[in-house]
Structure formats: C-alpha cells, structure tokens
Write a structure and sequence with these properties.
The protein has helices at residues 2-21, 66-73, 192-195; strands spanning 26-30, 38-39, 45-46, 50-56, 62-63, 80-82, 91-94, 105-113, 119-138, 148-164, 173-174, 179-190, 211-228, 243-253, 258-260, 262-280. The chain is mainly beta.
Length: 290
C-alpha cells in the first residue's frame, strides 16, 4: 500500500514540475559564423566583425624599405615605408589608420514576456576581443628635460539597451552603464638618450638616432550578464510587463582610446553572442532586492 501511494505521488508531481520548467523562454542574437578576431604569429591582430586603430609619430623615422619601419616600430605594427627612394631622399615610415577607424557594432534580439509577476531577463553578452598596444621612444622625441615618452591605450566597452515595444514602461536594468570588457594602457619613458647624446646623434650612418620599442598584444574572450526587470532601489523604473521587448548589445572603443608620442593602439571584436533568458526571481514568496 505504501509503495502504491509513492508511485501515485510521483505521477501527480511530475507534470507540475515539467510545466514550471517550461514556462520560461529564450532568445539570442549573434554576429554569425564569421571570421573571429585572432592573434597572428608576429603579434598583429586579424579578423573580427569590427576593428579600429589609431596611430601617431611614425613619420619621425626615415626609411628606404618597409623592413626599416618594421625593425623600428615592431613587426606587429603594420608599418610601411612611404615613397622610399633611398639615399638623401629616403621616405618616411607610416602606420596604418593614422586616424581613428570606427569599431562600433551591435547584435539584437527580441523576447516576449509571460504574464505574472517576478519576470526578469538574464541578458548575457559573450565576445572575443583583441587588443594591440605598441609604443616606441626615440632620441628625436627628447623634451627640454631630456626625457622621451610614448603611451597607448586600447579598449572595448559593451552595453545593453532594452526597448519596450508594446507600450510598457521602461524596466529597471542592472547595470545601466557601459561595461569595460577589455582595456589596456602602456607607457615607456626614458632619459637614456640624454646620457648617450653623443652616441645617438642623428647622422647619415644613424638616420633615426637611438630608439627603444615595446609592443604588447592580447586576445581575450569575455562574458557578462545584465539583469533587466528587477526592482531598483530609488528608481522609478520597474519590473517587466507582459509584451514584446527589443534588446541590443552595442560595443565601441573605450574612453581614452588614443596614442601619445610614437605608437599604435588597435582593437578587434568578434564573434559576439547575445543570449536572453526569461526567469522568475523569488525568495520564498517575495521578490529579491538588488
């Protein structure tokens, strides 16, 4: 009799559990099966669905071949010799993208909420990001104090926008500001050239004086989760209401993406996946607080 009662209890509970587990919904957006951002054997970046670069100072160096520029500015720099002609009329080095190229992008998804209270979206953005920061200091840069300095900062920030599409109020979102997925700053300063001023004097046999180069590249994969629709303390925006919502993950260069002195900062992004899962939040019979 006890064994029969246990079997009946399981038969009654199982459909209830299955119904509860299937009540949520899921959606996603993706940049697709495109070439991802990769790090090449020489430290350069390649691929990605978007990329950006800024550079400065390469014209300080004379060259007769592209290899002259790669020797000075680094094999990962992509530097080339501009109008080389040799001898006294040698060309100058040039880095790619001397201005800032846009690396902004986005992926989108849409999801309709179920009825009832306590609905939230768990929004996850995953992305592969590559960074290149490459700087050079040269005796041609020396300030009045005899110091030469170069620096570079590269980074990518990510944010999520939620758009009510059925007349609902704007829901609370945490966080509600851009998140730095990857950022790096490097700097080199030296007074070595002032000490070696006689040996580093620019001459026909040493047209570029003395120089010191430091390069660094990184590729990383990142994931972060936003919560949409939870109650926000002191915030008039509230929970999710029944209806359709549009969700957009956007990225772009970090604030301060720049080069000072001689160098290059670059970034590439991709692939990127945006996933949205609707869940219920509860602590016993009350909604969790943030």
């Amino acid at each position: 009799m006890k064994r029969l009662f246990l079997i009946l209890a399981i038969a009654v509970l199982t459909p209830v559990l299955a119904s509860a587990q299937s009540s949520g919904n899921f959606t996603y957006g993706s940049t697709g099966n495109t070439m991802g951002c990769v790090l090449l054997s020489n430290g350069a970046l390649s691929g990605g669905v978007s990329n950006c670069s800024v550079s400065a100072g390469a014209e300080n160096f004379a060259c007769t071949t592209t290899q002259d520029c790669l020797d000075i500015l680094g094999s990962n720099s992509g530097a080339a010799c501009n109008n080389p002609s040799g001898g006294a009329n040698a060309g100058t080095c040039q880095l790619p993208n001397t201005g800032t190229a846009p690396c902004n992008g986005m992926v989108q998804a849409g999801l309709k909420t179920n009825s009832g209270q306590g609905n939230v979206f768990a929004v996850t953005v995953s992305a592969v990001i590559g960074l290149l920061t490459d700087v050079t200091v040269s005796s041609k840069q020396q300030s009045a104090s005899g110091v030469a300095t170069s620096s570079a900062l590269a980074g990518i920030d990510m944010e999520v926008d939620v758009t009510p599409e059925s007349g609902q109020a704007q829901p609370f979102q945490a966080p509600s500001f851009p998140i730095t997925f990857d950022s790096r700053f490097i700097q080199i300063s030296t007074n070595l050239f002032s000490v070696l001023s006689t040996q580093c004097t620019v001459s026909p046999t040493l047209p570029n004086g003395c120089f010191l180069t430091f390069g660094e590249s990184t590729v990383s994969a990142h994931s972060f989760q936003w919560i949409v629709g939870g109650p926000g303390p002191g915030n008039a925006k509230g929970t999710l209401a029944t209806g359709q919502y549009g969700l957009t993950a956007k990225w772009g260069p970090s604030k301060g993406f720049a080069v000072s002195g001689i160098g290059q900062a670059a970034a590439c992004v991709g692939p990127v996946n945006l996933t949205v899962q609707q869940n219920k939040v509860f602590s016993f019979n009350t909604i969790n607080s943030f």
